[in-house]
Write a structure and sequence with these properties.
Distance between the termini: 35 Å
CATH topology: Peroxidase, domain 1
Number of domains: 1
Number of helices: 6
Number of strands: 0
Strand content: under 5%
Shape: globular
Radius of gyration: 14 Å
Helix content: over 70%
Length: 124
């Protein structure tokens, strides 16, 4: 099998994560709403603030799963926070360059998550 582009890997990861969460139909509305909020929050407040907010809302539908999706992606091999236990550790322990790369990557990933959540969880 041919090697996938980085964009394909990102899209595949987002698709797998959304499909897994889509199995719980009771949470579709909240998940889609949160998936739309997160990229805006990253733009407006920065990656660290957005992650901290989503982590703090762990008891509400969607927040915890979106935090995990983003954290797991940013900490995997080849990503800006590689080796960190979670994204907040990466934010607080990494360099400025790592932070900026992670912020850009987070927005790209969340764009896919947002699109796939609309596709697999119904409409706008």
């Amino acid at each position: 099998m041919a090697t996938q582009t980085f964009q394909q890997e990102r899209a595949k990861y987002a698709l797998e994560q959304v499909q897994e969460y889509a199995k719980d139909a009771s949470c579709h509305k909240e998940f889609k709403s949160r998936a739309s909020e997160l990229p805006f929050m990253i733009h407006a407040n920065g990656l660290g603030q957005a992650l901290a907010f989503f982590k703090s809302k762990k008891e509400e539908h969607g927040y915890d799963h979106l935090y995990a999706i983003l954290s797991n992606w940013l900490c995997k091999t080849g990503q800006p926070f590689e080796g960190a236990r979670d994204a907040l550790e990466g934010v607080t322990g990494g360099s400025r360059a790592q932070y900026m790369a992670a912020q850009a990557e987070a927005i790209l990933l969340m764009d896919w998550v947002k699109k796939f959540s609309r596709a697999f969880m119904g409409g706008e």
